[in-house]
Amino acid sequence: MTVSPYKEDTPIPDQSFPINVFTVTGIHLHWHDHIEWIYVKEGKVRIQIDAAYEQLHKGELAFVNTKQLHSAVQLTPDTELICIVFNEALVRGSGLDITELHYFMPYLQQPMKWPSLMRQSDPYIEEMNDAFSRLIHEFIRKDAGFELLIKAELLRIFGLYFRYAQKDAALAPPRLQKAHDLTRLLHMLRERYSESISINEAARMVSLSPNHFCRIFKQVTGKTFVEYIHIIRVQEAEQLLIETDIPITEIGDLVGFSNMTYFGRVFKKIKNVTPSDIRRRIPSP
């Protein structure tokens, strides 16, 4: 059986204007290199963002940062979600104005300091929902100047979000970080997948015993620690097989497999084909 890798290559039709909008009833567990905003248009869902699980109702929002593991499970038959996926380049100022330093860099580099959800009772929610509606309208119609208006609505939503985050931080009681919060560990694994990181080392990073860590990790990701690392490595290896002419033996080593026989066995278990099969499928130039 083929195991779906967690990393998703979300389709972005126009790379010069990197945004897409999807209407779905649920979201499989995955992560990607884009920012994603999830709006509950109808019904109720159970949202997972890294190690956190919450229920969201009609009119509520979830904010998913780049590289955050996330999913949404439909809880009512009428559930409808609108997902806006976009690259950070669409809203960042390339360091040329103050918004980059004050807002976007802190958000993108330290996602745990920002709220992930907005409820119906939260301030600015109605204004943000109205902005979502206008953005989607422009995306669908694509009239002259729609790119400018979409970007304007993205910035409006971000501005209201940052305003809410500041107020939320000022009013909320101090939040104790749970010992089993795996968010930073998951980010680290996605960045350092080629390195040899043992279960004991990973458990120490989140202040858990190895046994307890293994149970919590499986609960959050649906995979064992070793399976999770293998899936990331195989996904990266597949990309190198398709996009480069690096020899297969070198690719295995680059993604963290020191034994090529083991690399081939793990790759076939996850992708249901061998690395050589992937290479043979690539059309000749």
UniProtKB/TrEMBL annotation:
GO MF term list: DNA-binding transcription factor activity; sequence-specific DNA binding
A Pfam cross-reference name: AraC_binding
Origin: domain of life: Bacteria
Gene3D superfamilies to which the protein is assigned, alphabetical: Homeodomain-like, Jelly Rolls
InterPro entries named among the record's database cross-references: AraC-bd, Homeodomain-like_sf, HTH-like, HTH_AraC, HTH_AraC-typ_CS, RmlC-like_jellyroll, Tscrpt_reg_AraC-type_HTH
Protein name: AraC family transcriptional regulator
Lineage: Bacteria, Bacillati, Bacillota, Bacilli, Bacillales
